[in-house]
From TrEMBL:
Residues 67-281 form the ABC transmembrane type-1 domain. It is a multi-pass membrane protein. The gene is sugA_5. SUPFAM superfamilies: MetI-like (SSF161098). This is Trehalose transport system permease protein SugA. GO terms for cellular component: plasma membrane.
Length: 290
């Protein structure tokens, strides 16, 4: 048996890494959020102002607007990505055409391996008002050209399309892995009781999908709460504030207004919202498969 000291030595690199890249930045941001810290006005000093930054954020209508747009973006993307990912996973889980299944699994990795900035660049080209693919499709039906990224009513939907293209494979791969964990004897026993594919999915496969689905929802929600690259490349938060999600608004306050204290408070509040949503996902969706 290994001694306690030996186990601690093996754990030390992981603990130090978490402290450096995780806990220390969090504590630093929490410290900044409780201070009066404006880069462009050093005369104010760096003193404590208790929770004044949080009061400023919570009384800011633009903050609530950006948070509302973030929730709307989540409502746009997560259900579509889940449904498409589940359909892809169910198709790939079938035993027919093993070569095509292998090729499809490799193809699913391509969007995931593409950086958000590159996805944003592809989106700008695709939704360009002059020579974009989206407008070419629109003109095939006899309609005039549409400014997808310049229309406040369409810009956020355009971002949702590109986000869905990139992250639907993530849902598909995780749900496919969950389907492979379903015991074959349970499937065979269920097929003796019913021939309906829906009953097999609902009562046998679905419980094994819930842990993976919960994890994906938590990760995608956290990614969306800090989504910046895609938005900055495609729209820079515009037109107006139509695509200014909470992460983009936090960046504007921190690096354009240069009020680091208020920006840090926004970041902490965003983290709290993410934790609340994660707990809600676990309570609603997570079930241990028996």
């Amino acid at each position: 048996m290994w001694s306690t000291r030996t186990r601690n030595w093996f754990l030390a690199p992981t603990v130090l890494t978490l402290l450096v890249i995780g806990i220390f930045p969090l504590l630093f941001a929490l410290n900044i959020s409780l201070r009066q810290y404006q880069i462009t006005n050093p005369g104010l000093g760096f003193g404590w102002n208790n929770f004044a930054n949080y009061v400023t954020v919570l009384s800011d209508s633009y903050f609530w607007g950006s948070l509302g747009r973030t929730f709307f973006f989540l409502a746009l993307t997560l259900p579509v990505q889940f449904i498409l990912g589940l359909l892809i996973a169910l198709i790939l889980h079938r035993q027919e055409w093993p070569f095509l299944r292998a090729v499809a699994r490799v193809a699913l990795v391509i969007p995931l391996a593409t950086t958000p900035a590159v996805v944003g660049l592809i989106g700008r080209l695709m939704f360009d008002s002059d020579f974009g693919l989206a407008n070419w499709i629109v003109t095939l039906f006899g309609a005039g050209k549409i400014s997808f990224l310049g229309d406040p009513n369409l810009a956020l939907f355009s971002l949702a399309v590109m986000d869905t293209w990139q992250w639907t494979p993530f849902f598909a791969l995780v749900l496919l892995a969950s389907l492979t964990a379903v015991p074959q004897d349970a499937v065979e026993a269920a097929t003796l009781e019913t021939t309906r594919r829906w009953d097999l999915f609902r009562y046998v496969e679905w419980p094994y999908l819930l842990p993976g689905l919960t994890a994906v929802l938590i990760l995608r929600t956290a990614d969306t709460m800090k989504l910046f690259d895609l938005i900055f490349v495609m729209t820079r938060g515009g037109p107006g504030t139509a695509t200014e999600l909470i992460s983009v608004y936090t960046q504007r306050i921190g690096f354009r207004v240069f009020d680091q204290g208020v920006a840090a408070a926004m970041a902490i509040l965003s983290l709290i919202v993410t934790i609340i949503l994660a707990r809600w996902y676990i309570r609603i969706f997570y079930r241990e498969a028996e």
